[in-house]
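re: ur question from the group chat, yeah i did fold both. here u go
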Amino acid sequence: MILLNPGPVNVSERVRQALLRPDICHRESEFTELLHGIQAKLLKLFVPGAEADYAAVVLTGSGTAAVESAVMSSLPQGKRMLVLNNGVYGERISQMIGLYRLGVSELKYDWTTKPDPERLRLALRQHPEVQAVAMVHHETTTGLINPVKEIADVVDSQNRVFILDAVSALAGESLDIAGPHIYMVAGTSGKCIQGFPGLGFVLIRKGFLEKMRSYPRRSIYLSLTQYVDNQGAGTTPFTPAVQIYYAFDEALNELMEEGVAKRIQRYKKIATLIRDRMAKLGVKPVLTPDKQSNTITAYHLPEGITYQSLHDKLKEQGYVIYAGQGQFESQIFRVANMGVLTEPQIAGFLDAFERICTKA
């Protein structure tokens, strides 16, 4: 099955075979070696040249677990978080802090609109109680890319902490983490890194990490400092999904061999193939080109075709697309090009899509 959804993604046979490596205990030296290798690779890939300034924390859980661990671990007593919300995943961060009443009024935008850095600057001046600002890098609700550097510069200029949900962006979009002083970046194994779902990770600036040790512990499982302390000793506070770690390690090896920049360009090329062909078919994208990511394109449904009908007919031919969410649920469909996908596979999908639309 060709997965054209934003995770889980198609993986290589090499990554799949990594699941068959020998069973090991997570309290033994074999796991310590595996874990420390993964941490070193994450730092080399995503904060090159600044590895000494960051720590990589790995936990068993989805990308949402990584985001929630960053959010819940980042606030001292009496401080609040401000969320830039322009999609389902920005809304999810707001829900996380809402459970603990740790937020202020979010800056909410239409789901096709990028956040305004100057509006954020004004909000931070008006809310001295805000310690941290959280935003999604790639809002997969629509495939929208948010302005990370511009927002990070404003947050840094106001002496606040920037937390970035890069779950759907790392290895798919260009991102300078160390330059604009992004304090915490959450990622996952099962999207553009091309591993299996089941691992989350957070890259944390070490200076901020030391401050976090004095913050209230708001979760048993997702408290980041306990992971840092355990992983420094080569283990984890809770039982990890060892086989998924094996596969993640192999996926990181593949990424190092390909190179982050080359992977981004590969994704961009495939996205262009999809967009050019869809344009010829008259299928209208939700976003203008300047807002689109390298790995997801959201489209309005062709007239007279429902999502369920389109999905089912494509699946019969071996292709899985993705529905809209929230207010877009019955209006759009999404095509992701993350994962181990070839140009012939994409061409096959586009041919199948054209046949379905022609018959409709």
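okk and heres the other one u asked abt
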Amino acid sequence: MNRTLAINNGIIVTMNSKREVFRGSVLIENNRIVQIEKGEKRLKAEEELDATGSIVTPGFICSHTHLYGILLRGAPLKLRPPSDFTQNLQRIWWPMDETMNENDAYISALTASLELLRSGTTMFADTFSGPNAIDGVLDHIEKGVMEAGIRGVIAFEATQRRSEEEGYRGLKENERYIRKDKNEKMSGMISIHASFTVHDDLLREGKRLSDRYAVPLTLHTSEGKWDLYHNLERYGKRTFERLNDLGVLGERTLVAHAVQVNEDELNLIAQSRTHVAHNALSNMLNAVGIAPVPEMLRMGVNVSIGNDGYVFDTFENIRATFLIHKVNKLDPRVISFLQVLEMSTINAAKALGVSDKLGSIELGKLADVVIIKPSVKPTPLNEQSVYGYLVNAVNGKDVDTVIVNGEVLLRGGRFTKVNVEDVNRRAEELVGDYWRRLADAVEKVEVLKL
């Protein structure tokens, strides 16, 4: 039986090839967009949503996250503050990884998915790291994501920092999940931690699996200087030179960060059609530098926006991307409203290989749609001002309605399928236990003596 849903009289930000913006209406049948009308024509359906005074956008897509990063929020860890990114990994992230179990993976996936959904993100690409919870862990993450109802691309982050065998176990878990029968909203990819924690053979094997199953290959690249120094010391090559020589770069490869890169490496990224996930807020948090995104865009690199498991509000990440490059270049003309909105919609869809289905409001595409009702409108909201409103003014709390695969998951700012109070109660219990275990693990690294 067909289900129909109409969104009437909104300002439609299509992100189609012409980047059209107009006042109009959208008709959804089951999980597809079947009609788009310009003007004030009201479309009739079983359920009709009045978008008057609202912005209608495609669902936002986060191209790089770590859902389990949400468990660090407010964690009372007594440790000596890291002085650089490598110490950050050693003192916080790696003990965190080693503490994770299947229940931790599940509750972090559920709560982070809900937070993403609340601010209009309808799809994400997540990598999980937990060396003591590898086999089958992606099923637990899937369970949390499916309870939230969001669309997810998930993977285990293969690494050989503890043993060579462990890296191959990580790839095997990715392959198992890719081959598994799944809900249409879930898919898998190949994930490798970073070039400085794996050998050449694992990188080659990851690329082979990506090609075999026609799925994305994602890895962290040149986030901090240690990645660069490691490759220069061990291989006599910069990070992207090594990856290029191994055949890892390419149209299915999505690299996160790419901060410590030079012009030669940018050329390799551009020429190979490798995609980049930019994580502005996380890069600021870790003090690793500012990726040369304006240069990437000029060279035709497809740049998208991720959150790296830090701040999950879509609009905070969009706004940070819009601003940081202006101050870095001392030029307010750098990065436009449209460019950052492209990075969080159609560019991210391209990076994940789904731009034929998602990333824009167009006939035949899957119905992932967001309705945003700015709580304060001190100036006219219209077709000319809408980009400025989206980038400069709104935040996650202004998201009124989120539709994923034709299903309304957020209405009036409230979740329709999930009891948030119940989730919060479960999370408080499970994460409290996780924090106790994490504190023990962190103390074994280096404790701050008070």
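fwiw on the second one: Residues 420-443 form the longest helix (24 residues). The chain has 15 helices and 18 strands. idk if thats what u expected
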